[in-house]
Design brief:
Helix 4 packs across helix 6. The protein is an alpha/beta fold. The protein contains six helices and six strands; from the N terminus they run H-H-E-H-E-H-E-H-E-E-E-H. Strands 1, 2, 3, 4, 5 and 6 form a six-stranded mixed β-sheet that branches. The chain has two domains: about 30 residues; about 110 residues, Glutaredoxin, CATH 3.40.30.
Length: about 160
């Protein structure tokens, strides 16, 4: 029995020494997981042909209409049909390669612009050329006929 206790005590001493030696040999920084290096890649630049219109940048958007057609998209986050229409506008804008400016107007935040254009219902799209409304408006959205939106946008682009 005495031999078993001695052997057990020796084994425990050896284990304690190994643990203490390992802890002493391990630098403190190795025990803490390293943080990932900060990302150096810049975020992609925002698309300059998609603009959120406010009274502060409205004049600048009208200046843009001197070089490309501008589509004022009168919309709101709470508007169901506006949200249904949005992916179609995004798809068509992408397909057209930025040949027109998608100028989104939040009707809740920009009442002066809404009044200026006499918008009474949303979604409503208004085409602008050289600072003035031109052509027809596209009011409402029917998801069973997205080709009507495509047709309207094609007319906006071709008439510029």
């Amino acid at each position: 029995m005495k031999r078993t206790i001695t052997t057990l005590a020796g084994t425990l001493s050896l284990a304690a020494a190994l643990v203490a030696g390992t802890a002493a040999a391990t630098p403190a920084s190795a025990a803490v997981p390293q943080q990932a290096a900060p990302r150096t890649q810049a975020a992609p630049a925002a698309d300059p042909t998609i603009v959120d219109v406010t009274s502060a940048n409205y004049a600048q958007v009208m200046e843009m209409s001197n070089t490309k057609p501008v589509v004022l998209d009168f919309t709101a986050e709470w508007c169901h049909w506006c949200q249904v229409e949005k992916p179609y506008l995004q798809q068509y804008h992408d397909q057209d390669g930025g040949s027109w400016i998608w100028a989104r107007v939040d009707v809740d935040q920009n009442q002066s612009i809404v009044r200026q254009y006499g918008v009474r219902g949303i979604p409503a799209l208004v085409s602008v050329r050289r600072g003035s409304e031109y052509g027809s408006r596209f009011v409402g959205f029917d998801p069973s006929s997205p080709q009507m939106l495509r047709y309207w946008l094609n007319n906006v682009i071709s008439r510029y």
